[in-house]
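Hi W.,

Here's what went into the run:
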Amino acid sequence: MIIDCHGHFTTAPKTIHEWRRKQLDSIGDAAHAPKKSDLVITDDELRAAIEGGQLKQQRERGGDLTLFSPIAGQMGHHLGNEQTSTVWSELSNDLICRVCELFPDNFVGVCQLPQSPGVAPANCIAELRRCIEQLGFVGCNLNPDPSGGYWTDPPLTDRSWYPLYEELVRLNVPAMVHVSSSCNPCFHGTGAHYINADTAAFMQFLLSDLFKDFPDLRFVIPHGGGAVPFHWGRYRGLSFEQRAQPQPLEALLANVFFDTCVYHYPGVEFMTRVVPVDNILFGSEMIGAVKGRDPNTGYFFDDTKRYLDACTNLSTEDRYKIFEANTRRVYPRLDARLRARGGSAGQQKQPVLD
Amino acid sequence: MIIDCHGHFTTAPKTIHEWRRKQLDSIGDAAHAPKKSDLVITDDELRAAIEGGQLKQQRERGGDLTLFSPIAGQMGHHLGNEQTSTVWSELSNDLICRVCELFPDNFVGVCQLPQSPGVAPANCIAELRRCIEQLGFVGCNLNPDPSGGYWTDPPLTDRSWYPLYEELVRLNVPAMVHVSSSCNPCFHGTGAHYINADTAAFMQFLLSDLFKDFPDLRFVIPHGGGAVPFHWGRYRGLSFEQRAQPQPLEALLANVFFDTCVYHYPGVEFMTRVVPVDNILFGSEMIGAVKGRDPNTGYFFDDTKRYLDACTNLSTEDRYKIFEANTRRVYPRLDARLRARGGSAGQQKQPVLD
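Here's what came out:
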């Protein structure tokens, strides 16, 4: 089957954005803060948003299942405060849960965390647990810069993150490293902040002992890993220069994985030649960062399955890993769900070249 | 000839670092501030630093000439204040001038600017003029984030930069977009901050009308353009989505160029297939970001000429452009110097594959 590890509910009904605006407008004015119950979205509205958007494109592109999370750019951890972030995360995750219940064959939930700048990541544990244990989600998005582009919180390798990592390991779920929007005028959201965060996070991991402390912790770095594959030699070189704990780059590869949200064929083909195939997970971020069609081809920029299908260097086994097996391995709760449904990890569609 | 557009004086005698430390230690204590004349470095010391370092490697790798600038990581615009930055820049640029006078066939100067966070870039014009008009330099390094990793100054497309750009155009010199070290624990200097700045700058350009206002302004984005080539499709897609001034990515290519500081063969080969060859300038950043040898090959990671030599997709004409002609076109004052010396832009070494 074809599993897209990276999708956001970017087609959510606009009433949710109105609710959020009211919430942010009422900061410091609790009497006017909207309640979660003020947001009314019917199942029909959810069906329309999905059937005309993500599901339509999933089907047209030949996908089967998407790991689905709230809109990354709207997580807005830098807006409001810890309390607003908590309520907003619950509301957003609940909506994802409803989509996954309406379309259980096509979407499986990944949660947003109620992060807030300067607030201990441990405070996200309750919502993480709720989403994984009660809502049936299989992973989370973890924002390495809750400040929204000013990078004022500690790196991902700081010990303040450790309680959250302990819980990720206990729950046996990975985190996708994913920033939200940028409020820094130097950084365009999807064009700079997203990519830079991916690159920065990888380098943080490279400098650290994090995976000695957490050998079972797993991160997915989206957007092809930012600049990392293009600069694989730089990272290999730097990995040998870390005097305190020199370790080859390859030591990270038991814990760090990359999706394929790279929006041109040469980039995806290059990635599959540089990054070990066991570390590549199919992802498209559809419908998301780049919504249009390439005027040269008429195809959507973010139809990354097409690029993978066209990679003649990939064997059938490689494709099976990228499109299904790696994601089931990195997200064991997804694998368990699919097995319970009757699809073993051995089942596989023949990849189709177009 | 083989022109490396990107070299820093990383082998400078350590007395310069001691001088700088004293300068920073005396902030707010003018009586103890070192004078420029306190730094004594003999010509023999300079010769030893260059002959055992940059010149040795230039010769071993088959290079002819390097555009040479002060150590990027030591520009430290976030340290001290405008006054210390001015004195430090003058001192650093003077040292580059001496190297270029000692080795006029092998090194041509590129200057550091006396930037400081929150200070108008126009204040750098005097030192820029001095370096170009009096010291014979052919370009400058321009720091898009003088804060050292917190990005608190406006983007490169802000009008506060315009007076400096007017001077760059008047002098007919390009700027290499190059940050200094990072004081933000989230960003490793050469592993994250450098690459992220390259990516962020490109996206700033993509969003702007800068080159409508300055059709003759030219930037070189180092380190292969950060993540840009790997995400060329993302940037092409985003270029069509800018509602205010949609323009294809290609519209930037009269003004924006990329060096080849990408430290593995697949990355360089990929770059030459994605970025138009007219926009690629040979650069190695030698001796710099990654100093070691690849244990797999025994060669230096930053010997980027080897990677280019091995690119079978490049024609002789392509190599001539990347190794010489593009850099002479982007740096017209370099071209004028070489012509005066008797080397026309048509002269060319046959590339050697190894």
